[in-house]
Automatic annotation (TrEMBL):
It comes from Nonomuraea fuscirosea. It comes from the Bacteria. Residues 1-25 form the signal peptide. This is DUF1795 domain-containing protein. Keywords: Signal.
Length: 177
C-alpha cells in the first residue's frame, strides 16, 4: 500500500511540476517585452527611447524627415536635420509649428497650448479643433533641438488627442538625445 501511495504522490508532484513549468513558460512567451525600443536616426544624429507599443517606421509620411516612430493608434514622431545654423530658436520653432499645423492639422480652430524653452532648444504645442462631428481634436508638438554642430527638428502628431497618449508622445520627444 505504501508503494502505491508513493507512486501516486510522485505522479502528483511530477504533474504539478509540469503544470507550473508550462504556466511559467506561457507567461514569459505572452508577456510584453520589458525592454523599450530605440529609434536611431544617423542623418539627424539623434536617438530616442520608445515606450511599449511604439515602433520605428520605414519611411516618414512627410518629405524631408529622415525617421519616424509610431504607436499604431494615430500618434507619430518624425525627425529631420535642420540645414545651417538657427539664429532665433523660438522664432524658427514658431514658424515650423505654423507650417506643420497648416499641412497636418488643418483645424477649424488651432490654439497654442504650450510654448517654452527647453534645455537644448525650444518647443511649441498646438491643439486643433474641428467643427464637423467626424474629426476629434488633434495635437501637434514641434521641437527644435539645437546643438553646436547641427540642429534637429522633431514633429509629433496625435490624432485623436488623448491625455495618456499625449504624455507618451511627449515622453518620446523628450527622450531625444
Amino acid at each position: 500500500m505504501w508503494r502505491r501511495v508513493a507512486v501516486v504522490l510522485a505522479a502528483l508532484i511530477a504533474g504539478a511540476g509540469l503544470v507550473t513549468g508550462a504556466a511559467v513558460a506561457a507567461l514569459r512567451l505572452t508577456a510584453p517585452p520589458e525592454r523599450t525600443g530605440l529609434m536611431r536616426d544617423a542623418q539627424a544624429g539623434v536617438t530616442a527611447t520608445l515606450p511599449q507599443g511604439w515602433s520605428t517606421g520605414a519611411v516618414a509620411p512627410v518629405t524631408g524627415f529622415t525617421s519616424v516612430v509610431r504607436d499604431g493608434r494615430g500618434a507619430l514622431v518624425m525627425a529631420r536635420p535642420v540645414p545651417g545654423p538657427v539664429g532665433d530658436v523660438r522664432k524658427a520653432t514658431a514658424e515650423a509649428a505654423e507650417l506643420y499645423s497648416r499641412l497636418l492639422l488643418m483645424g477649424d480652430r488651432v490654439s497654442v497650448v504650450d510654448d517654452r524653452r527647453t534645455a537644448d532648444g525650444h518647443t511649441r504645442a498646438l491643439r486643433a479643433e474641428y467643427k464637423d462631428v467626424v474629426n476629434r481634436p488633434a495635437f501637434l508638438r514641434v521641437m527644435l533641438v539645437t546643438r553646436t554642430d547641427r540642429s534637429v527638428l522633431l514633429v509629433g502628431l496625435l490624432q485623436p488627442e488623448d491625455e495618456s497618449r499625449r504624455q507618451a508622445l511627449d515622453e518620446v520627444m523628450a527622450s531625444v538625445r
